[in-house]
Specification:
Strand content: 35-45%
Order of helices and strands: EEHEHEEEEEEEEEEEEEEE
Strand order of the largest sheet: 7-13-12-9-10
Radius of gyration: 33 Å
Structural class: mainly beta
């Protein structure tokens, strides 16, 4: 008899009788009867025979024992085969992402891969590769033997621009240096002499409204920035316009 493989996330109803032709090896089936048991003790005691071997429910790995009786001679023989219940590792879950400029695919657990289509179709994207500007649906595919599972997430990469000026006067327009979609690792603001006047580490979104590292408000002027993201380092200038009293 041949090994039967069952995926834990697939149809779990198995026809045990598919092995009968293999066991008979060309001998007429009408000369034999088959009884199926899930333990050798049940077979020896002739109890708890599987009542519907054409639709056996599988929820774990089994060794199936088969009592084969020759109707002509009355002789019996016992054979067995395994049902392998294959559990696939859950694919890594990644939340939908909206980001500026580009997106770098995170590393995956061993045995998992990125694809642009379902069922391991489309392009096989490499870990740590960059996703270009646009909207993308990406699949994470996990496989073991013949079984697989997959998850999907969406990446939207925006063609963002960094603000050229802020005027923190509370009117709701350009009140802060908004870099919400850049996934900032570090922001530094410098004055025209190259002195750092403000900095912020990971988690920066729009916290700079013209204040210095000490908390006081900086004067109106042109300032220079260094923005570090997981993908690149950006530099440029921003005009700070403070409301005149």
């Amino acid at each position: 008899p041949e090994l039967i493989k069952v995926c834990h996330n697939d149809v779990k109803i198995v026809d045990l009788t598919v092995n009968e032709a293999v066991m008979l090896n060309g001998i007429p089936a009408t000369d034999f009867t088959f009884e199926y048991f899930s333990s050798i003790s049940d077979l020896n005691d002739n109890v708890n025979a599987i009542t519907n071997p054409q639709a056996f429910f599988v929820d774990r790995s089994y060794k199936i024992y088969v009592k084969i009786k020759n109707l002509i001679s009355g002789c019996e023989e016992v054979m067995s085969f395994d049902i392998e219940y294959i559990i696939v590792d859950e694919p890594m879950l990644i939340e939908d992402v909206v980001v500026c400029t580009s997106y770098q695919l995170p590393e995956l657990p061993d045995g998992q891969k990125y694809f642009t289509g379902p069922g391991a179709t489309g392009e096989n994207l490499k870990e740590n590769s960059y996703i270009a500007i646009g909207k993308h649906e990406i699949y994470i595919y996990s496989q073991k033997d013949k079984c697989f599972e997959e998850t999907t997430f969406n990446v939207e990469v925006l063609n963002c621009s960094i603000p050229k000026g802020i005027s923190p006067n509370g009117d709701g327009l350009n009140d802060n240096f908004d870099l919400s979609f850049f996934n900032i690792l570090k922001l530094q603001i410098f004055n025209r002499h190259g002195k750092e006047v403000y900095s912020h580490g990971p988690g920066y979104t729009n916290q700079w409204i013209g204040q210095s590292n000490s908390g006081g408000m900086l004067p109106s002027a042109t300032y220079f920035y260094t923005v570090i993201t997981p993908f690149e380092t950006l530099t440029g200038w921003v005009q700070l316009v403070q409301e005149q009293n």
